[in-house]
Amino acid sequence: MLQVEGLSKKYGKLTAVDELSFKVDEGAIFGFIGPNGAGKTTTFKILATLLRPSSGKAWIDGEEVISDPRRIRQLVGYMPDFFGVYDDLKVDEYLDFYGASYGIPSARRKKTIDELLELVDLSHKREAYVDSLSRGMKQRLCLTRCLIHDPRLLILDEPASGLDPRARLEVKEILKELKSMGKTIIVSSHILSEMAEICTHMGIIEAGQMVVSGTVEEIMQRTREGQSLEIKVMEKTAEAEAVLRDEMNMNVLNTADRILELPFSGDEQEMNRILTALMQAEIPVVSFSLSRSKLEDVFMQITRGVVQ
Amino acid sequence: MKAFVVNPILGKEFISRMRSWKSPLVVSLYLGVLGLICLGYYWMNEKQMYYSGFTPDIGPQIYVILTVFQLMLVSFVTPALTAGVINGERERQTLDLLLCTRLSAASIVLNKLLASISYILLLILASLPVFSLVYFFGGVLLSEIAWVFLIYLVTAVTFGAIGIFCSTIFRRTQVSMVVSYIIVFFFLAGTLALAAFLGTVNMGNSSQPTVPWIAYMNPLVALFSIFPSYGMHFSISNFIQRISYGMGGGGIAQSIPTEALAPWQYNFILDGSLAVILLLITIILLDPVGRFARFRRKSK
């Protein structure tokens, strides 16, 4: 459905998106995760034909994004990370306006608006002015707007940001509903936990580069694999290595500078067992710690977003 | 619910504009001012009439005053209606949403302009009853009024194009408003001053003086050139000459050059071309994936 290859966007010296490549299959919910300023919005804008990439290409349904913007716009429903509403219109007029802008015939528009308002549970607000809606309702209205022309690919930029927990839940429910309708969805977030449960696939982006992408299970697996244990000793490096290798059955990668590095995917009990074994062998350990891979760093940064 | 049968942008602008309380207020103020001017002029004349009797010229005179004043109003209202249409969408964060629909940049720009022009047409049509006063006194042909309205239309399109152009190249509405008004002021006053200056400078160089073309960009010049000759005789050369004298210059030669086209025709060609060029540039700048996209901006 969507393929991105070597996509870059530069603003003067600043590189917002740097050689980004990824693929989204038909019917998937792809979580595009990264800290603020990682290049998520820029990528989305390129896909929504609102920005010209500096280099690289993107295809949606086999069509290159900048070669025929009008066809792409018909295929894509884009929801930016802000509301963008006309305060002086009523809910149904607002939707009718965008429906007409997408060239949907008047009779079909009315029917579609009815159905969509039903889907996002806003039927009772159709005569209300957009201005009078709550944040959660506005967000649902905006989601409705990007569904009005029945796009196959939905690009949703931070749909849950700034919403209260209840409204977040509602947005998630709607996304699940849309998935069951067969839509392909790319949704961005700077919060990992928010996405993990509804996405089928994930891509983690940092500083404009894709750190990792794949199915949610694959990524979770790879995060655990990425850890390593670093043990620094005062002396007896060789003995320490022997203890770890022979008694604990561990694979020691490196022993430079009195630091032993070994891949580790166990829990704290496991760590304690290793330390006890080293103590019993009277190895003078000075430091003992878990180091994180780059992926984990990004992950931590993202998960911290929950607390922020 | 009102479904959009016309172009959605045009339809939405109509709904938004007519829904606000500003519209009836603007129309009322507009007609009020025009009406007051008519009445004021008539009262002034009434005093004179007491001594000199009824002057049949009062019809054409009121007509000239009304048309000039209405041109000023059109010039004043147009930037207010157009100089915020694109950056206004941007400030409301709706521009991106509009650009990613199937509406082309051309359709957005032209329909925004059309919506503003329609509103000005509404003001002009609403002023027709005031113009009917002129008929009460007689002395002006219907065709003459039609020409005047055509000049209003060309002026509104030109100034509207300037407003939309400014609203596309400047990010902030206030800036584009101010710049649009400065340009409109230049059209109304600056062109004449410049023409008078050029006329004076050229006087020594050429034995066959011509009217500097920049004078024809002024809608007032176009308007004056079609006034009924019995009302107020007007010749562009004399007009500029007077200003030139006013500026302390020597004025241009007395021989009035024979022009191939009437001033209002020059005006239509010059201002019309300018409007077309500005609109084309605006459309090119607005296209988000075009090579000259103005909105190739840094994302958050």
Element string of chain B (H = helix, E = strand): HHHHHHHHHHHH
Low-confidence stretches of chain B: 230-234, 246-257, 295-300
The number of helical segments of chain A is: 11
* Count of alpha/pi helices of chain B: 12
The dominant shape of chain B is globular
Beta-strand content bin of chain B: under 5%
Distance between the termini of chain B: 36 Å
What percent of residues of chain A adopt helix (DSSP H or I)? 25-40%
Distance between the termini of chain A: 34 Å
**Most extensive contact:** A-B, 46 and 36 residues
Principal-axis shape of chain A: elongated
Q: Beta-sheet strand percentage of chain A?
A: 25-35%
Structural class of chain A: alpha/beta
- What is the helical fraction of chain B, as a range of percent? over 70%
Listing every helix as H and every strand as E from the N terminus to the C terminus, the arrangement of chain A reads EEEHEEHEHHHEHEHEEHEHEHEH
As a whole number of angstroms, the C-alpha radius of gyration of chain B is 22 Å
Q: What is the number of beta strands of chain A?
A: 13
Radius of gyration of chain A: 25 Å
